[in-house]
Design goal:
The chain is built from 7 helices and 6 strands; from the N terminus they run ββααββααββααα. The chain is of the alpha+beta class. Strands 1-2 form a two-stranded antiparallel ribbon.
């Protein structure tokens, strides 16, 4: 028998206990969230770490980070994390889309550059940065359809969908 196999029969390497946490060589056991907090402690300008940590928080949930040279505590919500990530990587098209998806219709968010943006503004920014970002178009379409339904009733949005299905066929290119 192999003594290095875990309960599922897979060989366990050093530092690998399960998918929800890892034990570092210094003995600390950290979850994915804790690893991201540590990454931000070490590099408070990591746009990727802010964005990924933002996806782990439920809307409205807060997390306290020690940020900056003085290591002051700062409570941040999922939206705050995405705004901070965009501060350090303003060309991240996907970051604008994800931030938009975390907002409620009619809400605004202020970016670190001072711009106040709606969900629609964020999706338009994402498309401007990356015209091939399919999720940005999908997100914008949902917003347009919800706005249409709010103004004219849900039947109009359904009629728009029916009209779109009757539109001329578009050839999609593979891969």
């Amino acid at each position: 028998k192999n003594k290095n196999k875990n309960k599922k029969g897979k060989a366990a390497g050093k530092g690998e206990e399960n998918n929800s946490s890892v034990t570092l060589k210094d003995g600390r056991r950290l979850s994915g969230r804790q690893l991201l907090v540590e990454a931000l402690r070490l590099d408070s300008t990591s746009a990727d770490a802010y964005g990924l940590l933002g996806t782990l928080l439920r809307p409205g949930e807060q997390i306290t980070l020690k940020t900056g040279r003085k290591m002051t505590d700062r409570k941040m919500t999922d939206r705050d994390l995405f705004v901070q990530g965009l501060r350090y990587n303003p060309e991240n098209s996907q970051g604008y889309v994800i931030l938009s998806e975390r907002m409620q219709p009619g809400e605004h968010v202020q970016l670190s550059d001072g711009r106040r943006m709606t969900q629609r503004d964020l999706c338009l920014e994402a498309i401007a940065l990356d015209p091939t970002n399919a999720l940005a178009y999908h997100c914008l379409a949902k917003q347009v359809m919800m706005a249409t339904a709010a103004l004219h009733g849900p039947g109009v949005a359904a009629a728009d969908a029916a009209a779109a299905s009757a539109a001329p066929t578009v050839q999609l290119k593979d891969g």
